[in-house]
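Troubleshooting log. The previous structure file for this entry was overwritten by mistake, so regenerating from the original sequence record. Sequence copied from the archived sheet and checked twice against the printout by T.R.
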Amino acid sequence: MNADTGDDVVGVKELPPDPTLASAVGRHHTLESALADLIDNSIDAEARRVHVRLLTRDGAVESIWVADDGKGMAEHSIDTAMTYAAKRDYAPDDLGHFGVGMKAASLSQADQLTVYSRAPSYSPVGRRISIDMPTRVGELDSAAAGRKLDGARTPFPIDRGTLVEWTGLRNVIDTVRADERLRWLEQTTERVRTHLGLTFHRILARGALAITVDQFDLEADDSGVLRTVEPIDPFAFPARAAGGVDVRLRALLDGASMRVRFIVWPSASTALAAYRLFGDPGGVYQGIYAYRRDRLLQIGGWNQLALHSSELDLVRVAIDVDDTMARHVSINPEKSGLELDATLRAAIEESVAADGQTFADLLQRGRDARRESRTRRRSDVVVAEPGRGFGAEVLRAFEESTVASDAGPVHVRWRHLAVAEPIEIDLENRTIWLNARHREAIAPTSGGESADAPFVKTLLLLLFSEYFDDSYLGAYKKRELEARKEVLAAALDEEIVLRRLRERDERRG
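Regenerated output below.
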């Protein structure tokens, strides 16, 4: 029965969605994930080419375009595309899922979204919405929409296809320093290329799609170098690399066969971009990689199948969310992660390889491989045993890379000191006290001015200065130097891992 029928109904009211829907749905998007969501639409529109353009003025990004050569949209289809949660018939291979992707992704980054499109045998169309009234759609003049498409000067003519424009960008750097704007622009461009190369690596690798990125200088009225997005396969380690594991497991889910790919990266290959991905320690990205229609939905994370641990830094697992599995998966609107129900998790845990190895067996192989890779680097370098004040990862690096002296542990801790010095050496209690009065200077919190880390630089100079005193380093000094570098690298990796995990958890809510 409809809500407006019945003897007790005296009137009907149209109640449009609250405008805050726009910010609520897309709040976990990053710039890169929002762009990937737009490219999903391009793929659904059968595009073979997609171009991302960052339009700049004096190094500051004023707007962003995503253009494609897909089938384009006419009046009815563009109205549906601009309607929040509009119901349409998704094809089996479509990447669209919720009916909010383009709007939520765009308005998570920009105050205004404008879409221009042209379908064969139809006049060009254009629509515009804004963050303050996302359910009120502005209809653009058809001739103006056509001029925009014709004058876009993208790498391919948009004689059919769509151009999405973001203006009023909110998540771009805001500084008067031109060098910082340019550095941010370059870093952002490369991060976008990496994210898109990873997210669509299967589609790019088989040649079904080409993605390019450029920067367009509005003052010079010219574009910079055209950069191609190359596929980045997070499972692509050298086939002949020693110590690697690449196993297919099979399980049953609802009576249907399900496949799971399990790899252990060879320790000798962990410097590759396919392992480090965004340049971060590869251990950040251990865990489950979930695909749907060859589009990567989740980059790492264990979904309650295991706990994040440095012992699993070399392990990655790929699953493909097919129609059978989809009933057991919840995908968030940003397509940046998913939840597996208990039935699916049990199926993965019970999966078995052709040689009889189980999922648990392979997790243990991953732990063993990580432990072995570190043990091989163990040396006879003797250092003080770290005590209180160190994280588990740094303690493990000390244990596996050095030999503890017999004198006992040295603790490094915080307390308020009566004097202004940053540290106090307490020989009697074998403790280095860091002055809590200077905590912001020594370990700045996010949002503070942390540009140059002078205290850390001074510590590093004191730590390594002896190696610059001698013109020749003997074998022992070389081993000692490498051991210290190993421990410092572990400390840096642990800090980056913790930050990335916090950021990912915040995005997923």
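The chain is about 30% helix and 25% strand. Archived copy saved in two places this time.
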